[in-house]
Structure formats: structure tokens, C-alpha cells
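Design request, C-alpha cells follow.
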């Protein structure tokens, strides 16, 4: 195993040090500045109550399905993407501490899936065991107690042998757990206007604009095109945002960033 990793690492160094061969490892240059508000999508939602306790339940329904996305304006679209409700990042789930949440994930994609709420205190049947899959055409209701303090989590596919591949191709989203103590900060809290989440990642694209798959990689794939909340390259937002939370979705290198105002 050690010798295999060393050979792979040496291959990467040699490829990147060769002027001709390096092009095979590079995505097409992305030189467009994203100048629109961050794409934000909330899921379909209907309230419900526990028939035994009468307590409120936050109920969501999300479909896992394929979609395409035009990443490079001058190339073909990225195909074979799979996302929650057919978008990536998936719908942001807004939840409240102490209120149970039930999320129905229906699988309309072409392969099995299962969802893991990363960093959550979850009961065993809904923790995302990698072999407890939801087959194509089936659904599963995930139950989350939301008993932790306020935090920003992310949910993603967790199927055995395909976790990195599925997350890279779109199966990831944000889960915001709010509690009343946060209101005491006095910050504007209207989601999508004064409060947004940033989902940071790094991807690699083929020469035709399609997404390069990490499925054949024995080690991590570190992309050379940064993405932020569904947009690519350098990113700006025209909205006035006073608070933000961020998370990084693998496979991705360490990311450092700053927020600044860009003159029009």
C-alpha cells in the first residue's frame, strides 16, 4: 500500500512538472466573474405533529435526481450530475433546536443512495450506515431529533465505495440548526438576504466542460476550479449580507478565503 501511494504521488509530481503532460491534469481555464446573487433554494415543506406527544415536526420532502449544469459558457454542459431536488448544493434545510425533523428522500437517480447528516447527533437507523442503501424508486424517512446547540451541518450521500464520487457530482447540501439564543445577537437573520451559507469545494473538469470523476482515483482528487454555493471561479454577491456560515465538501483541499466588496 505504501509503495502504491508513493508511485501515485511520483506520477502526480512528474505530470505537473511536464509542460505538455500537465495539460492533461488541468481543467480548462475559468475566467468569468460570477456577478449575481448566490443561488439559494429552500425545499418543499409541510408542517406536521407527533400524534402521541402533539409536538411540532418539521417535515421535508426531497428528490434525488439527475440534472445538467452549464459551468463553462464556452463549452458543453456538465452532464450526469445528481443532486437533491436536481440542484447542487441541495436545498438548505432550516431547522430549530428541540423540534424533531423528518426528511423524506426519494431516489429517482440511477444508483442506490443513502444520506448522512454530517456532525449530527443521529439515531442509528438514520445515521447513514454505508450499506443501508435506498434503492432506485424507493424512499426513506430520516428522523433527526435536533437536540444539539445551534450549528451549520451538511448532509451528503454515504453509499459504500461511492461517497466521494456522489458528493463530487452534486449530492450535498446544508442543514442549519437554529436556536433562540442566536436571536440575542441582534443580527438580521432573514435567510437568503441577510444570512447565507457558503458551500466551498474544488473540482476538476474535462476539456469538453464535463465534470471529471474521482471514481477511478485510489487517492484524493484535488480540483483546480474552486466553487462556492453552486457558482464557479471567482465569486461575488450583489446582496448585502451581514452573517454567513461556510463548510467545505470533499474531495477538496484546504481552502482559505476572504470576503470583499467589488466596485461595479
Amino acid at each position: 500500500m505504501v509503495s502504491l501511494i508513493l508511485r501515485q504521488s511520483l506520477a502526480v509530481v512528474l505530470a505537473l512538472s511536464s509542460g505538455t503532460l500537465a495539460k492533461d491534469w488541468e481543467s480548462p481555464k475559468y475566467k468569468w466573474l460570477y456577478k449575481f446573487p448566490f443561488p439559494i433554494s429552500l425545499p418543499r415543506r409541510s408542517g406536521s405533529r407527533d400524534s402521541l406527544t402533539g409536538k411540532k415536526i418539521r417535515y421535508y420532502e426531497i428528490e434525488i435526481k439527475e440534472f445538467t449544469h452549464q459551468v463553462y459558457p464556452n463549452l458543453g454542459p456538465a452532464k450526469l450530475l445528481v443532486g437533491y431536488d436536481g440542484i447542487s448544493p441541495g436545498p438548505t434545510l432550516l431547522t430549530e433546536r428541540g423540534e424533531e425533523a423528518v426528511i423524506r428522500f426519494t431516489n429517482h437517480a440511477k444508483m442506490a443512495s443513502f444520506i448522512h447528516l454530517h456532525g449530527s447527533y443521529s439515531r442509528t437507523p438514520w445515521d447513514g450506515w454505508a450499506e443501508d442503501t435506498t434503492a432506485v424508486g424507493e424512499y426513506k424517512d430520516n428522523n433527526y431529533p435536533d437536540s444539539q446547540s445551534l450549528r451549520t451541518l451538511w448532509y451528503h450521500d454515504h453509499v459504500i465505495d461511492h461517497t466521494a464520487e456522489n458528493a463530487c457530482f452534486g449530492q450535498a447540501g446544508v442543514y442549519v440548526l437554529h436556536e433562540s439564543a442566536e436571536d440575542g445577537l441582534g443580527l438580521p437573520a432573514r435567510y437568503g438576504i441577510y444570512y447565507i451559507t457558503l458551500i466551498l469545494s474544488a473540482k476538476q473538469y474535462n476539456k469538453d466542460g464535463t465534470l471529471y470523476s474521482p471514481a477511478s482515483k485510489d487517492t484524493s482528487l484535488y480540483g483546480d476550479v474552486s466553487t462556492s454555493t453552486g457558482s464557479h471561479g471567482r465569486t461575488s454577491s450583489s446582496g448585502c449580507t451581514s452573517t454567513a456560515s461556510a463548510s467545505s465538501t470533499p474531495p477538496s483541499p484546504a481552502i482559505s478565503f476572504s470576503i470583499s466588496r467589488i466596485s461595479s
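Comment from the thread starter after seeing the answer: thanks! The first helix runs from residue 2 to 17.
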